[in-house]
Amino acid sequence: MKIFILTVLSALILTFSGTSVFAQNGEIDRFKDSSLEKKLNEVRMFPNPTADYLSVTINNSTLAETSFTVHNIIGNVVDVPVEIVGKNEYRLRVKDLAPGYYLLAIRDDQGYFKETYKFLKR
C-alpha cells in the first residue's frame, strides 16, 4: 500500500512539476512586484509643512533637465526661486509665499515625467 501511495504521489509531482498545484493564476507573479525593486524618479519633499525652504530630492533619477512650477490652490502660477543643491537635489525658497496649500509640478525636458505634489506653507 505504501508503494502504491508513493507511486501516485511521484506521478502527481512529475505531472505538476511545471506549475503550482496550490497557487491560483497570477499568485506566484505577485512576488515579482515592482515595489520590491528600486523605483525610478522617486520624489521626496521635506519639510512638509514648511516655513522657509522646501527641499526636493529625486532618487534614482532618469530626468535630464528638471523644471519646477509652483501653483497656488486655485491654479495660479507663483514665482519661486529654485536652487540646485546637488545632483538631483533642489531647494525652493517659499519664505515669501502666503500661508496655505500649494502644488509643485515637476517635469522633465522630454515630457516623459510629469508629477504634481501638494505641500503646506506655514
Verbal overview:
With 122 residues, the chain is mainly beta. Helices cover 11% and strands 39% of the residues. The protein has one helix and eight strands; from the N terminus they run H-E-E-E-E-E-E-E-E. The protein has a four-stranded antiparallel β-sheet, with no helix packed on it. The longest helix is centred in the N-terminal third of the chain and has 14 residues, at 2-15. The chain is elongated and about 85 Å long. The model has no long low-confidence stretch (mean pLDDT 84). Residues 45-112 form the Secretion system C-terminal sorting domain. This is T9SS type A sorting domain-containing protein. Residues 1-23 form the signal peptide.
Rough outline: elongated
Query: Strand arrangement, largest sheet?
Result: 1-2-6-5
Q: What is the mean predicted local confidence, pLDDT?
A: 84
**How many distinct beta strands?**
8
Q: What's the multimeric state?
A: single chain
**Major beta sheet, specifics?**
4 strands, antiparallel
Approximate strand percentage: 35-45%
C-alpha end-to-end distance: 78 Å
Q: Work out the radius of gyration.
A: 26 Å
Amount of helix: 10-25%
Number of helices: 1
Secondary structure category = mainly beta
Please write out the topology:
Blueprint (H helix, E strand, L loop, with lengths): L1 H14 L26 E5 L6 E7 L6 E7 L4 E2 L3 E5 L2 E5 L6 E9 L5 E8 L1
Antiparallel strand pairs: 1-2, 2-6, 3-4, 3-7, 5-6, 7-8
